Amino acid sequence: MKNATASAVMVCALAVCTSAYAGGHTHEMSEAGDTSDASSMNIADSANHRMSHGEVRKVDVAAGKLTIRHGPLENLGMDAMTMTFKVKDPAMLSQVKAGDKIDFVAEEVGGALTVVELHKQ
Known about the structure:
single chain, CATH 2.40.50.320, 2 helices, CusF_Ec, Copper-binding protein, signal
């Protein structure tokens, strides 16, 4: 009975996460499709809105990964937590060290959560 309850909870959580993730992409696509000046501003605002804040906890150069304690990742529909990300460009790893405060954008790339933009504060 415990396994059935746990499975039902996991299915519900996955459904909520999936719909939140899909909703975020629909919004970005509709803004990108409009070429007016106002939408250009919205796209820039959207890019800034996707930027998340965090603290580097670990830099793993050999694996090409960063462990980041971060706030909510609105563009991915994720709550605040500590997790490990791949990096789009290995040069990003040399820009930061454990303890650094950062602003970053994470996206799903090839099935893996990946830091695609990184700015040290």
